[in-house]
Every structure is written in C-alpha cells, then in structure tokens.
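testing teh design pipeline on a random one, pls ignore if ur not involved
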C-alpha cells in the first residue's frame, strides 16, 4: 500500500510539472488548449499504472526468461534509434511509435533489460565466473553492446549503466582483474572517439552529441570571461 501511495504522489507531481511547463507548446501547436498535454500525460500515467499492476501479479521467477527476451529486443531497438530515431538536441534518443505517435527512449527499456539479464546470467554461470571465455565473455557482451549503442547519443546514461553493471558483476563474483581490464578498455575507447572527433565530423556518422560536448568545452573559457564581466553589473543591480 505504501508503494502505491508513493507512485500516486510522484504521478501527481509529474502531472503538475507537465501542466505548468507546457503552456508555450500549447499556444504554439494546440491553439491555446493547455489541457491537451495534461490529458496526454494523464493517459500515459493510467497506462503505466495498469502495466505496474499487471507486472506485480507476475511471479518473479518468470522475469528471468522475460529478461532474456528483452535483451534481444532492446539491442536492435537501440541500433534502429541510433540510425533512424527522432533527433533532439543533436542526439538520437527517441523512437516514435507509428499510429499513436508516441515517442519513448529505447535506452530506458535497455537499462531494465540489461540489469535483469545480468542478474540472470550471473546466477546461472556462478560456477564459471573464473573462466574468461566460458564465463566472463558470456556475461559481459550484452553490457558492451548496450553501452556502446547508448554512448553516442547519451553519454551520461551509458556511463551510469556501465558503472551499475560493473558493481553488479563485482558483487556477483566476477574476478577483479577482468573488471579492471574492461574499465581500461572502456576508457580507451571513449578517449579514442574523443580524439577522432578532432579529425572527423562525427555528426555525419551519428555521433553529433560528441561534437556538441566538444564545442561546449571550447566555449567554456569565453563563458567564464563573460561571467567575470557581468558580475559587477549584476551586483550593482542587486544593490538598487
């Protein structure tokens, strides 16, 4: 009962946030109908409540098999999103569903699928974790596949998911030397992509988000100078 109360509270807060932040969109695209986005959000909330209620009725032993199916669904969806997804802020993170015209982040599905699949495979292969080929590689390949596909459009999500997976594998009993090698390989790969961005226009190959962060880093010194110039003016206005 407490969990459902928390869910209801968060749903109410999210509805207020959507209603208060979509006024401009409503007047621009819906002719001033401010209830449009609220009702759309409420329908999604009701759908989520129904899914939550249905899922909590499923015995937990079935989630092991479901995770195996979801990981094979989420990886192709991530690839499709990266290639032909809906782009916003130079990042292709969303996949728009036809007919209902509803977009969602495939990385959200991949996160749940990966963590559940890791828990399953760590349990099934707990006696083979010390074997690099028969144990570690069988466990780590979905981590690499999911994080690599998320990384170009959403570095922070990929980093958090990779870290969570590393912690889960460490708790599950994977050897520290294997995990250390995986971290070293991940850092090397990220550094290589960053260096490559100074040679090639990565937005042409689906890595425009790297260009965005690189340009933001280049503008940082100028932003600091502008802040230094503006601070005296801001202080004078506050005194008035």
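output:
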């Amino acid at each position: 009962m407490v969990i459902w109360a928390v869910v209801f509270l968060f749903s109410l807060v999210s509805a207020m946030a959507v209603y208060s932040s979509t006024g401009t969109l409503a007047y621009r695209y819906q002719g001033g109908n401010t209830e449009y986005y609220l009702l759309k959000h409420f329908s999604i909330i009701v759908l989520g409540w129904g899914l939550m209620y249905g899922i909590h009725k499923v015995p937990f032993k079935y989630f092991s098999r479901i995770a195996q199916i979801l990981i094979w669904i989420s990886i192709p969806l991530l690839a499709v999103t990266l290639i032909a997804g809906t782009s916003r802020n130079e990042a292709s993170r969303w996949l728009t569903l036809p007919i209902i015209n509803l977009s969602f982040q495939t990385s959200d599905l991949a996160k749940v699928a990966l963590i559940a699949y890791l828990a399953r495979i760590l349990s099934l292969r707990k006696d083979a974790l010390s074997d690099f080929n028969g144990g570690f590689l069988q466990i780590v390949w979905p981590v690499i596949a999911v994080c690599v596909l998320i990384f170009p459009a959403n570095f922070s999500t990929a980093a958090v998911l990779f870290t969570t997976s590393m912690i889960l594998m460490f708790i599950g009993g994977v050897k520290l030397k294997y995990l250390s090698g995986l971290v070293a390989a991940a850092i090397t790969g990220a550094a290589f992509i960053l260096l490559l961005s100074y040679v090639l226009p990565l937005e042409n190959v689906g890595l425009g988000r790297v260009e965005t962060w690189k340009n933001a880093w280049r503008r940082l010194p100028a932003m600091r100078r502008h802040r230094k110039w503006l601070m005296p003016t801001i202080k004078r206005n506050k005194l008035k």
